[in-house]
Amino acid sequence: MINKLIAKIQKTKAPIVVGLDPMLSYIPEHIQKKAFEEYGETLEGAAEAIWQFNKEIVDKTYDLIPAVKPQIAMYEQFGIEGLKAYKKTIDYCKSKDLVVIGDIKRGDIGSTSAAYAVGHLGKIQVGSKCYVPFDEDFATVNPYLGSDGVKPFIEVCQEEGKGIFVLVKTSNPSSGEFQDQLVDGRPLYELVGEKVAQWGEEHMGDTYSYVGAVVGATYPEMGAVLRKLMPKTFILVPGYGAQGGQGKDLVNFFNEDGLGAIVNSSRGIIAAYKQEKYASFGPENFGDASRAAVEDMASDIRQALEAR
Amino acid sequence: MINKLIAKIQKTKAPIVVGLDPMLSYIPEHIQKKAFEEYGETLEGAAEAIWQFNKEIVDKTYDLIPAVKPQIAMYEQFGIEGLKAYKKTIDYCKSKDLVVIGDIKRGDIGSTSAAYAVGHLGKIQVGSKCYVPFDEDFATVNPYLGSDGVKPFIEVCQEEGKGIFVLVKTSNPSSGEFQDQLVDGRPLYELVGEKVAQWGEEHMGDTYSYVGAVVGATYPEMGAVLRKLMPKTFILVPGYGAQGGQGKDLVNFFNEDGLGAIVNSSRGIIAAYKQEKYASFGPENFGDASRAAVEDMASDIRQALEAR
Questions:
Q1: Percent of chain A at pLDDT above 90?
Q2: DSSP per residue over A53-73, as a string?
Q3: Hey, are the CB atoms on B170 and A143 less than 8 Å from each other?
């Protein structure tokens, strides 16, 4: 799957991932209205609105991008109905040949991480039958519990040819509270990064590992250090756009081969029609606004990479 | 909710929580067979088996215990159908007046943690209507992202009178890999513990905070240190029984008032009928075996507390 991700990045010339993190407030009035007319102002109605919103954005952008990253929390907040929309979105994106990164940030003790790994990346046995419950291509994983919590994911990935991105240095303002604490003079995130590189050796693709890392665009200097520390690790970089990261901040996350990173934007793409820059599209054409935002983001990153 | 938890511990004289973490391999043949006859060897069939298994254990133990802790991963591994069984289990336990601790170990950047908090502990607005998606009483939270990731949970808890348990020192063998790293001569988990105590001041019950901590029974010496560091923090203690912890290891986690901790056992209770000690009950009477295991565990902890 890491090989497929890289091939798709090379084909689209766009190392970007669209974060499908729908909030009801992002969804244009006409989509909400139609969903509520059909299902009422219910969790089912909200899930239908989310699904129709996602579908339009995917339809308008899938040929430009290698991957999407649905954030499961945005679906889980609507309970079971929301999670059905999460699954529907995964299946639809895969039918469009997009790589799907499930932003689930799971992580637990061994047997429990194994259950998450099976549910999201693997197969579950029921009697004599076998099922694929959520079937993302990649999942994000929280490292706080150590190797015990991460290795069950890697084992399932080895069986299924799938991958993970382990949180190393997150994009949020307070990420330093624990992640930046100095251990023998070095920040904790560097130790986590070293572990990610070690874990990654257990499951290599052709040039990069199936075990990737999450490092926020909002911390470009730390990105440069981590890039060197984990040379064969693909870095998923959230925090571009709405969270404050810009193209020029991103070059540090890439290797000399122009690969090694994939940059996420969520709100900046999916709610583009709400920005002044794309307002002329109007809410009816929100998908076209998202397409324009994807093109601008890809070009911003390409220019930054060429200028270095 | 922390006040209710404490009142129920005092009433049952059992500071214990039953971990409803069903694996198909724990579920007696006759329950699986019946579920598969009705729904086939499907995810729905597996979910039905889990639900019937849980129901019997709850029916046979609810009068002895203050709380249950369903581990969502064990449901999530069966996809949407599994999560329906999770929700059904929560609702049933609440109808039996049990406090429900959702072991979800979520944690993300601010807006995303807010979505998890709403979905599990709060209410979600859909148009003019309001819904309670999962409705646990407490949830476990991963602190790796810092205050940003934890505070949205606390805000929802303040609105709803609910609580959280933040992972401080987990029970698994490799928990020390990052959690024990020394920062200015002190392990990281102590820093996390101090933060938990601080966060807890923002949402106090009568004697303890609504913001609790998770500290594994497998690390009793660290438990003693953390107990002093977080005097008003209720500690959820996993790792008793199957993971290796014993009654005598647990006294460190309690305050002088005999409160301040609640000890979880999962496999040791729900799969008790598989142990030699309870084998005479037979698989047909697995619920009675679980009841006996609860009584033995409560008495083990009471004796250890009296002996100190």
A1: 95
A2: HHHHHHHHHTTT-SEE--BTH
A3: no
End-to-end CA distance of chain B: 29
Q: Is the ipTM of this complex over 0.90?
A: yes
Nearest to B173 among A134, A148, A179 (CB): A148
Q: What is the pLDDT of residues B122-147, one digit of tens each?
A: 999 999 999 999 999 999 999 999 99
Strand partners, A187: A182
- Are the CB atoms for B66 and B262 separated by under 8 Å? yes
Q: What is the pLDDT of residues A20-66, one digit of tens each?
A: 999 999 999 999 999 999 999 999 999 999 999 999 999 999 999 99
Domains detected in chain A: 2-307 (3.20.20.70)
Element holding A111 (H helix, E strand): helix A110-121
Q: B264 is written with which tokens?
A: 């979880």
Token pair for B286: 């697995």
Q: What is the DSSP code (8-state) at residue A254?
A: S
Q: Which residues sit opposite A91 in a β-bridge?
A: none
Residues of B in contact with A184 (CB under 8 A): 182
**What is the C-alpha separation between B206 and B49, in angstroms, rounded?**
40
Chain B residue numbers touching A134 (CB-CB < 8 A): 79
B110-121 helix and B147-160 helix, angle to the nearest 10 degrees:
30
Phi, psi of B302 (to 5 degrees): -60, -45
CB-based contacts of A67, cutoff 8 Å, min separation 6? A5, A8, A17, A18, A98, A99, A100, A101, A262
Of the residues A20, A69, A111, the best mutation for testing chain B's interface (the one with the most B CB atoms within 10 Å of its CB) is: A111
Contact criterion met (CB < 8 Å) for A188 and B171 = no
CA angle B50, B301, B189 (to 5 degrees): 80
Tell me what the mean pLDDT of segment A101-128 comes to. Answer: 97
Residue B249, pLDDT above cutoff 90: no
| Mean pLDDT score across all residues of chain A | 96
Give the H or E element holding residue B197: helix B188-201
Beta strand A186-187 with A211-215 is unpaired
Q: Does residue A185 sit at the B interface (CB-CB below 8 Å)?
A: no
